[in-house]
Design brief:
- The radius of gyration is 18 Å and the shape is globular.
- The strands form 3 sheets. The chain has a 3-stranded antiparallel beta sheet with strand order 3-4-5.
- It is 46% helix and 16% strand.
- The protein contains 8 helices and 7 strands.
- It is an alpha+beta fold and 182 residues long.
- The chain has helices at residues 15-26, 36-45, 50-57, 61-70, 77-80, 110-119, 121-124, 149-173, and strands at residues 3-4, 11-12, 85-89, 95-101, 104-109, 128-131, 144-147.
- It starts with a strand and ends in a 9-residue tail after the last helix.
Length: 182
């Protein structure tokens, strides 16, 4: 099954891939739900829930949650006590599970969970998990491997340093990165 982008027709193998593409490529900067101050004022200033914000701004809860995460906007502790985990895409484009345990906001990227299942905890702890084909949301077992962090940085630095610098510059210019963070 494939998922097609309604704006450009590009096809993706997963909904997550399509979602990351839409956020990075087609999300209009003038949408109020992408603005940190708007979200902060509605959430903290007016005490609205993410669902209420989504309804008022004409989007969905996941989109509001995504942009609050991009802008590092803390959520209220009451929400933290909901007994569930949710799958989302983090600001770097990685699928992750997040949940709340004893008031603590816990997150783990899907590829790290998969690596633990495939290679065991001891092989993953203290290591990076590398996507062999470079696609952050391609979490097939054969596409991931634990890698020493310095080796991982060296691998990506030698292969894609120019490409990554160019992408980061474009994202900063487009206002997609908070305060110049990578």
């Amino acid at each position: 099954m494939t998922f097609s982008c309604a704006d450009c027709g590009r096809e993706f193998g997963t909904k997550q891939g399509l979602g990351v593409h839409r956020n990075a490529t087609h999300e209009a900067e003038d949408k109020p739900y992408t603005d940190a101050e708007t979200l902060r004022e509605m959430y903290w200033g007016r005490g609205m829930s993410m669902r209420q914000i989504a309804d008022e701004l004409g989007t969905d809860h996941d989109r509001v949650d995504y942009w609050m995460d991009v802008h590092d906007i803390e959520t209220r502790t009451g929400y933290a006590e909901q007994p569930h985990a949710s799958l989302t895409i983090d600001k770097d484009g990685y699928p992750l599970w997040k949940t709340y345990v004893d008031g603590y906001h816990a997150r783990v990227r899907v590829h790290r969970l998969l690596a633990v299942a495939e290679y065991g905890f001891d092989a993953v702890v203290g290591n990076d998990v590398h996507h062999k084909n470079g696609v952050r949301w391609d979490n097939r077992p054969e596409n991931i491997e634990p890698m020493d962090p310095s080796e991982h940085r060296r691998h990506h630095g030698l292969e894609r340093a120019d490409e990554q610098r160019e992408l980061m510059t474009k994202l900063r210019e487009a206002g997609r990165l908070n305060g110049g963070e990578a």
